[in-house]
């Protein structure tokens, strides 16, 4: 009789463990769904329509801003929990100036889950030069991709971002705003060591969210210039840097 009770106790304990594990999994899934559902929304309708000079085309991985250029393209990874179209103003302006841009849509608005999507673009499209870029976490994921695919790329452009792995001889441009309240500047400083060809530009008055068009970002400082001014200075800096390489 004692053995039977002991077996029943073991079975009951096992059921409790299974129930607890299932409950934890449900809680974790629910928390993840809640987390990724709470993201910054874009306000860029006027920038995602084709113009006389730039065609905006849907691709398997997002949007292509196809301008007059034929030899140079930039692949862009959005920041974490930011709707990818938020960066359309900068992409449109670059395309108007001869640099076609691939704005990549990420699973759950997190570049961590789509870090290698640039490879799909590089494999499908024929450009002489591919640059990769990203904002915030998107820039970090772009750097991780670049570190492992240096031969396929011409350069890296960070917008309020940094690398944590070697970029070798890849020309690297880092742009950030002087009023950025989100970027970890200590990591920007330590990240300089990972690129031998490194250029760093600070946009006076710019902030973290000012590279996109998605409103104010938690933890950021107010910008002292307009978004349009930050976009324009960013585009001019990228174009001048590309021309100098």
Helical fraction: 25-40%
Largest sheet: 8 strands, mixed
Q: In one word, what is the shape?
A: globular
Strand order of the largest sheet: 1-2-4-3-5-6-7-8
Structural class: alpha/beta
Strand content: 15-25%
Give the SSE string.
HEEEHEHEHEEHEH
Integer average pLDDT: 90
CA radius of gyration is 22 Å
Secondary structure tally, helices: 6
Distance between the termini: 84 Å
Q: What is the total tally of β strands? A: 8
Describe the model.
With 245 residues, the chain is α/β, with parallel strands linked by helices. The protein is built from 6 helices and 8 strands; from the N terminus they run αβββαβαβαββαβα. The protein has an 8-stranded mixed beta sheet, with helices on both faces. The longest helix is centred in the N-terminal third of the chain and has 36 residues. The termini are far apart. About 4% of the residues have low confidence.
Task: Describe this protein with a few key phrases.
alpha/beta, 18% strand, 6 helices, eight-stranded mixed beta sheet, 8 strands, globular, 245 residues
Summarize the structure.
The protein is an alpha/beta fold.
């Amino acid at each position: 009789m004692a053995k039977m009770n002991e077996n029943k106790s073991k079975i009951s304990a096992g059921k409790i463990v299974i129930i607890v594990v299932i409950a934890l999994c449900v809680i974790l899934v629910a928390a993840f769904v809640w987390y990724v559902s709470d993201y910054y929304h874009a306000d860029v309708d006027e920038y995602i329509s084709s113009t006389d000079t730039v065609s905006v085309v849907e691709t398997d991985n997002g949007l292509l801003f196809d301008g007059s250029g034929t030899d140079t393209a930039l692949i862009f990874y959005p920041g974490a929990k930011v709707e990818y179209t938020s960066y359309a103003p900068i992409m449109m302006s670059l395309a108007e100036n001869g640099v076609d841009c691939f704005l990549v849509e990420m699973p759950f608005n997190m570049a961590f889950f789509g870090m290698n999507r640039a490879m799909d673009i590089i494999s499908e499209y024929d450009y002489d030069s591919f640059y990769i870029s990203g904002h915030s976490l998107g820039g970090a994921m772009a750097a991780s991709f670049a570190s492992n695919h240096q031969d396929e790329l011409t350069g890296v452009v960070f917008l309020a971002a940094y690398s944590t792995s070697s970029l070798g001889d890849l020309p690297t441009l880092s742009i950030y705003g002087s009023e950025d309240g989100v970027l970890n500047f200590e990591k920007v400083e330590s990240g300089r060591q990972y690129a031998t060809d490194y250029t760093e530009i600070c946009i006076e008055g710019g902030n973290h969210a000012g590279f996109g068009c998605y409103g104010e970002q938690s933890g950021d400082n107010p910008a002292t210039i307009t978004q349009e001014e930050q976009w324009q200075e960013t585009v001019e800096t990228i174009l001048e840097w590309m021309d100098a390489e």
